[in-house]
């Protein structure tokens, strides 16, 4: 079966500035993959391209072997959902009203709240623990609760693939773990293919089955956390010297930086 998402000689640019040059790689299905790398290496740009939010200068993205740019928008939205950085909703919108936006790809030109749509919204609220907050305005929630509400909207799309762009940014540690536990559970219990952009290397190692490390718009390494997070990679990609310990709970790498290499 073709990879859920893959790129073939994909080049992404902003004006004349090339961010990702001729990138070819593929993602495995039904696992959690985190894209890591320093600021400005092209992580979020790549994720947006995987969701067709960023057009390719050349090359292409494929969704299960089909060129993404050739597929109808609603078909793409029924197969993959993305939670971008810093999403913004209209003032006063309730959690449930937000989640209903996730049903748009499954509805016709005259949206009706069919039983299957109501069931999908209820399921998404339940999966994210947001049922009790359904009637509350988004701006009355904590950061972690708002993030879960946005994830609920993505879940209401009922897609096989969920893309999360820095989902823990600006959240305190407890809310970060809340979101990461949810992403992992959606993979383990619901069979979702989850792709995240993360900055925290220890969180990426703990919650991901596979890491994709980027440097300068290119893939430096891809594989299991214990194979990717090596002293050489930390030095070459992040310019760090670090102790790499074993997480006592998961056996995954745990990094303690102690110096810069430059």
UniProtKB/TrEMBL annotation:
SUPFAM superfamilies: P-loop containing nucleoside triphosphate hydrolases (SSF52540). InterPro entries: AAA+_ATPase (IPR003593), ABC_transporter-like_ATP-bd (IPR003439), ABC_transporter-like_CS (IPR017871), P-loop_NTPase (IPR027417), Siderophore_ABC-ATPase (IPR051535). GO terms for biological process: iron ion transport. One of its GO terms (molecular function) is ATP binding. Residues 5-241 form the ABC transporter domain. It is found in: Cell membrane. PROSITE patterns: ABC_TRANSPORTER_1 (PS00211), ABC_TRANSPORTER_2 (PS50893). SMART domains: AAA. Pfam families: ABC_tran (PF00005). GO terms for cellular component: plasma membrane. It is a peripheral membrane protein. Keywords: ATP-binding, Cell membrane, Ion transport, Iron, Iron transport, Membrane, Nucleotide-binding, Transport. CDD domains: ABC_Iron-Siderophores_B12_Hemin. This is Fe(3+)-dicitrate ABC transporter ATP-binding protein. It comes from Deinococcus irradiatisoli.
């Amino acid at each position: 079966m073709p990879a859920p998402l893959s790129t073939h000689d994909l080049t992404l640019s902003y004006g004349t500035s090339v961010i990702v040059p001729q990138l070819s790689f593929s993602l495995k299905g039904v696992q959690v993959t985190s894209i890591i790398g320093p600021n400005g290496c092209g992580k979020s740009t790549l994720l947006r391209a995987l969701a067709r939010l960023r057009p390719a200068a050349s090359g292409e993205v494929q969704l299960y072997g089909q060129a993404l740019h050739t597929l109808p928008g609603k078909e793409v939205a029924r197969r993959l959902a993305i939670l971008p950085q810093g999403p913004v909703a209209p003032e006063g919108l309730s959690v449930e009203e937000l989640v209903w936006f996730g049903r748009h790809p499954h509805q016709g030109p005259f949206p009706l709240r069919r039983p299957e749509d109501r069931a999908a919204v209820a399921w998404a609220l339940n999966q994210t623990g947001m049922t009790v907050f359904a009637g509350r305005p988004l701006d009355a929630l904590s950061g972690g609760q708002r993030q879960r509400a946005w994830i609920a909207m993505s879940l209401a799309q009922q897609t096989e693939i969920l893309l999360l762009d820095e989902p823990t940014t600006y959240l305190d540690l407890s809310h970060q773990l809340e979101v990461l536990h949810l992403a992992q559970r959606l993979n383990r219990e619901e069979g979702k293919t989850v792709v995240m952009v993360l900055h925290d290397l220890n969180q990426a190692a703990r919650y991901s089955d596979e890491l994709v490390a980027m440097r300068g718009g290119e893939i430096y390494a891809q594989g299991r956390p214990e194979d990717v997070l090596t002293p050489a990679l930390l030095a070459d990609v992040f310019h760090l010297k670090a102790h790499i310990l074993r997480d006592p709970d998961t056996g995954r790498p745990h990094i303690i930086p102690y110096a810069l290499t430059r």
